[in-house]
Design brief:
Blueprint (H helix, E strand, L loop, with lengths): L1 H4 L10 H13 L1 H19 L10 H25 L6
Helix pairs in contact: 2-3, 3-4
Length: 89
C-alpha cells in the first residue's frame, strides 16, 4: 500500500516480491527496514522449500510472522497518515 501511495506500481514479473520489499524500504525509509529484511528472510526460506513438503514452518514461526505482519501493517498505516493524509480512509 505504501508503494502505491508513493505513486509507484510493482509489476508482476520474476523477482517482484523482492522488488516490493526493497521498494518499501526506499519509500518508507528506516521504519520499514527491519520488517522488509524480516519478510525477505521469510521469502527466501519459502523459496527453498519444495512444495511437496508440509509442516516445514513451526507453529512458533507462523505466530511470529503474523505478529510481524500486524506490526508492519500498523507502521504502514501510520506512514500513510503522516505522509499522505488525504489517502487515509
Amino acid at each position: 500500500m505504501a508503494i502505491a501511495c508513493a505513486g509507484y506500481r510493482i509489476v508482476s514479473k520474476v523477482g517482484h516480491h523482492r522488488v516490493s520489499l526493497e521498494s518499501v524500504k526506499l519509500v518508507m525509509g528506516r521504519p520499514a527496514d527491519k520488517y522488509a529484511d524480516y519478510f525477505e528472510t521469510c521469502r527466501r526460506k519459502r523459496n527453498t522449500i519444495d512444495y511437496t513438503f508440509s509442516n516445514v514452518a513451526t507453529e512458533t514461526e507462523a505466530k511470529e510472522i503474523l505478529s510481524q505482519a500486524s506490526q508492519f501493517c500498523s507502521e504502514v498505516e501510520d506512514w500513510i497518515t503522516k505522509t499522505h493524509p488525504s489517502l487515509k480512509k
